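We close this part of the discussion by returning to an individual protein. The amino acid sequence and the C-alpha cells for this protein are reproduced below:
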Amino acid sequence: MSLRLLLGLGAVVLYALLSHLLMLYAADAPWAIAALFGPLLLPCLALAWRRGHWPALTATIAALIALILIVAAGGLGDVRRLYLAQHAGVHLSLGIGFAASLRGPGLSAISRIAHRLHGGQLTPAMRLYTTRVTRLWVGYFFGMAALSVVVFVWAPWSAWSLLANLLTPLAIALVFVGEYLVRYRLHPEFERISLAAAVRAFQQRDTSAPLGR
C-alpha cells in the first residue's frame, strides 16, 4: 500500500472522527456547518468540473452559495435536518443514478468503469458481473438512505451521527473489500486493478460507452 493511499485513508478517518465530534458538541455553530459541508462540496465541485457534468456542477455551486448564506446568517434553527438531508440525499441521488444506468441497452455504472479500466474490452462474463455489482450498489445506496431516516427519527442524535460519520465510511469500505474478494474468487480471469487506477477511471469522462445496461 503506497504512502499516498495511507495518508488519504488517514485523512478520511480523521475527518470522520472530527465530524462526529462536531455534530455532537457544536452542530449549530456556523463555523462547524462550514467545516462539515465545505470539505464535501469542494471535491464534488472539482469532479463535476473535470467530467463536464453541468447539472451536477450547477447543483454543487448552488449548494456552496447556500452554505455561504447559512454561515453568514449565523446558522439555522434546527441544523440537524440539514445534516440528514445531506447524508440521505447523497445516498438517494447515487442510488437513483446507478439504477438509471441499469436501464436500456448500454452499460451499467460499474460496467462503464470496468470498460475504461480494461481498455474498452468487456467479455460477456465481465459485463454480467459488473451489472450485478451495480445492482449491489443500488441496494446499498437506497438501504443507507432509508436507514439514515429511520435512525434520525427513532434513535438519539448521537446514534445518527455515529451512523453518518463513522459507520457509513466503514460500510462502504466493507462493500469494496467484500466485492474485491468475491470478484477474484469467482472470476480469477479478471485483471488485477489497483485502487488508484479505479479512482482515476471513475473520475474520467467516458464518451465511448453508452449509458444504460
